[in-house]
Amino acid sequence: MFSDSSPEQISVSSGKNPGSVGRSTVVSLLDWFLLDGKLILVMERPVHTCDLHKYLQDKGCLEEREAKMILRQLVDAAMDMRCKGVFHGDMTLQNVLLEFSGWVPRVRVINLGCGTFSTESSHCSYSGTPAFAPPEWFLNGMYCCGPTTVWQLGGLFHSMLNGQGRFSTPTIMYKGADISRKLSADCKMLLDMCLARDPAQRATLEELQACPALSRH
């Protein structure tokens, strides 16, 4: 539910939503209506799912192979949204569902409440989860869509490998990323690519997608 009944919010959730109901990584908009000046979005509700936050609560840290499998799907989902002109803006543990309808958990992305159209220009208003905001937002009050998405993907990967509740941008800015020495070189590389403090040094989605470390088991 949103108090701003902007056509942009409807467009981001529907017209820009890739794929048909049940086939897209991003959950689909089924309907929308106004109630007392508030915009109500009726979204697809996948079955046999739990969010990544609950999954990590139950399992603790994930094995590297599973964490990379989930990250790979998240990178593909982020690329798909960007190709459709969508910036999610709040890729956090609670906004990632794992659907258990097959042998391999399938990633579904929910909650486009902080979403907007993807642009190359800088943004000066951030409405996502503060713990997953990129360093440049805290330092300069500005951020760009691409590097922010990659930072948030790094936060998700860090959480999968270290346990939920361990990732916070301010903590990483002042204390470092607390990367376990037990992690493989591939996982350390992926974390370094995503969590570079300087957005200009951060990997792009294309670089992540093409990175051999993301495909190796």
TrEMBL record:
SMART domains: S_TKc (SM00220)
Keyword set, alphabetical order: ATP-binding, Kinase, Nucleotide-binding, Serine/threonine-protein kinase, Transferase
Enzymatic reactions: L-seryl-[protein] + ATP = O-phospho-L-seryl-[protein] + ADP + H(+); L-threonyl-[protein] + ATP = O-phospho-L-threonyl-[protein] + ADP + H(+)
EC number: 2.7.11.1
Region Disordered, residue ranges: 1-20
Domain Protein kinase: 1-217
PROSITE patterns: PROTEIN_KINASE_DOM, PROTEIN_KINASE_TYR
Annotated GO biological process: negative regulation of apoptotic process; regulation of mitotic cell cycle
Molecular function terms from GO: ATP binding; protein serine/threonine kinase activity
Pfam families reported for this sequence: Pkinase
EC class (word): transferase
Phosphoprotein among keywords: no
Top-level taxon in the UniProt lineage: Eukaryota
A cellular component term, taken from the record's GO annotations: cytoplasm
Signal peptide positions (record): none
Similarity comment: Belongs to the protein kinase superfamily. CAMK Ser/Thr protein kinase family. PIM subfamily.
Protein name per UniProt: non-specific serine/threonine protein kinase
Organism (species): Stegastes partitus
Lineage: Eukaryota, Metazoa, Chordata, Craniata, Vertebrata
